[in-house]
Amino acid sequence: MSSQIPFDVSFNFVPRAKRPQKPRTVGLTEIRAPYYSTFGTRHLNDVFDVAGQWVDGIKWAGGSFALVPPEQVRAFSDIAHENDSYVSSGGWLETVLRYGDDAVDHYLKGAKEVGFDVIEISTGFIMLPTSGLERLVEKVVKAGLKAKPELGIQIGSGGDSGEAELAAEGAKDIGDLVDRGKRALDAGAEIIMIESEGITENVRVWNTGAAASIMNGLGMENVMFEAADGPVFEWYVKNYGNEVNLFVDHSQILQLEGLRQNIWGNKSTWGRVINPA
Question: Tens digits of per-residue pLDDT, 5-53?
Fold first, then answer.
């Protein structure tokens, strides 16, 4: 543990587990923009005022930005950029794809205009071959944006389907996910987002072996796991340390960061999260 941390925090004489300053390449925390919780720019400013040091990016889930006036979407982007955080589209490209290549080009152009930095390419609802994923990654990068494919092992993931409905669909092979992830990274993807369905969400028993295979196959620095549930992000930090990249709800920033820095926890993590300076 380090004796001090290079951040503006209260009581910084108390030792913490090492955390790099922004822009970070490991230990990323991405938070959800308005979706399940509806809020505006005043609330986002409050979030960054309190916890901006620990937020690396914001993500508009489920095409929610398409329900908001463009000036408001741009205002969200401006606030994030002022706080050295990126803005990600979240899943929606799969919706645009139904309307052809011209629609995709128009979407990417509009994404830049509202200040997006990252385009998520979600594959939970579409039957996309790996070669098609590679071409989409290349198209996003050519447009001057960062590509973040979202891969998972559960068919139909990414929506509001129930556990029984998803179980009936069956799961995909872990090796296939790892192969697709490697090829997407080779094509220029920035990072791979891993869907939680089938691993820690909508399952009776967590599939921890899948998480381990993905970590080992792609490298921890190249993946980000959906973990918008306290026991889930605690499990990732407990098993992989505080440099694991996680996507959580904006209400969980300080809870997660407290765990990353080893200032709090529960009976299985309290005082045990270590990262030497």
Answer: 779 999 999 999 999 999 999 999 999 999 999 999 999 999 999 999 9
Nearest Cα to Cα of residue 77 among 42, 24, 41, 106: 41
Enter the tokens of residue 40.
């505006």
DSSP conformation letters of 66-123: GGS-HHHHHHHHHHHHHTT-EEE--S-HHHHGGG-HHHHHHHHHHHHHTT--EEEEE-
Residue bearing tokens 């306290």: 230
Provide the b/e sequence for 205-230 (b: ≥16 CB within 10 Å): ebbeebbebbbebbebebbbbbbbee
Quote the tokens at residue 165.
Answer: 């409905």
As a whole number of angstroms, the distance between CA 5 and CA 254 comes to: 16
**Whole-prediction pTM:** 0.93
HSE, CB side, 13 Å, CA atoms: give it for residue 58: 31
Query: In whole angstroms, what is the distance from residue 234 CA to residue 260 CA?
Result: 9
- For 235-262, b/e burial (b = at least 16 CB within 10 A) is bbbbebbbbbbbbbbbebbebbbebbbb
Dihedral (CA of 188, 127, 246, 30) sign: positive
The answer to whether the CB of 7 falls within 8 A of the CB of 253 is no
Report whether 79 contacts 57 (CB < 8 A). no
| pLDDT value of position 3 | 47
Q: Are 121 and 93 in contact (CB under 8 A)?
A: yes
Calpha distance 78→109 (Å, rounded)? 17
Distance CA 78, CA 217 (A): 36
